[in-house]
Design brief:
Order of helices and strands: EEEEEEEEEEEE
Distance between the termini: 22 Å
Largest sheet: 10 strands, antiparallel
Number of helices: 0
Length: 155
């Protein structure tokens, strides 16, 4: 099969939409799976001992949704800006391809986290919430927990 063809639907008036019968109207990919994030420091990547080492993802077309939760991890030796890597698919590059991480129930950083996916790469930068310039670092301690999700457009 070549996917589900939606070209018979009513035309849209949305700016930037594709024309009838184009590849943009064919749903040609669906996938579910698990992925193993990596936890990085831009100066030094330390060690991480976790209860959970995998997250889940769903990919529909080129849209990817990833989730991860770890109820208890011990981190040591991390230095520099916190990053989360090894997402299952690289992020698309170009205008409109930014994706923000949403954090909840976490004490793994030295501040309230936000973050964004790096275009053309498979990692995210962890930033202070509401501040696009201040990077956070990992909290090198025991009993850290981390929950986040992200939706992004894959390359």
């Amino acid at each position: 099969g070549k996917g589900i063809d939606f070209s018979a639907q009513t035309a849209t008036s949305a700016s930037g939409s594709t024309t009838s019968g184009s590849p943009g109207e064919i749903l040609d990919h669906y996938e579910e799976g698990t992925w193993t994030p990596s936890f990085l420091g831009t100066t030094t990547t330390g060690t991480n001992s976790s209860n959970n080492t995998t997250g889940t993802y769903t990919k529909i077309g080129d849209i990817v949704q990833c989730s991860y939760y770890d109820s208890s991890s011990d981190k040591s030796g991390y230095a520099g800006n916190a990053q989360i890597g090894n997402f299952p698919f690289p992020v698309k590059s170009g205008s409109g391809s930014f994706a923000c991480l949403v954090f909840s129930h976490t004490n793994a950083f030295n501040g309230a986290p936000g973050g964004y996916m790096q275009q053309g790469a498979s990692y995210a930068n962890v930033m202070a919430t509401g501040d696009g310039t201040t990077s956070l670092s990992w909290d090198n301690a025991n009993g850290r927990y981390l929950m986040f999700s992200v939706v992004y457009r894959a390359a």
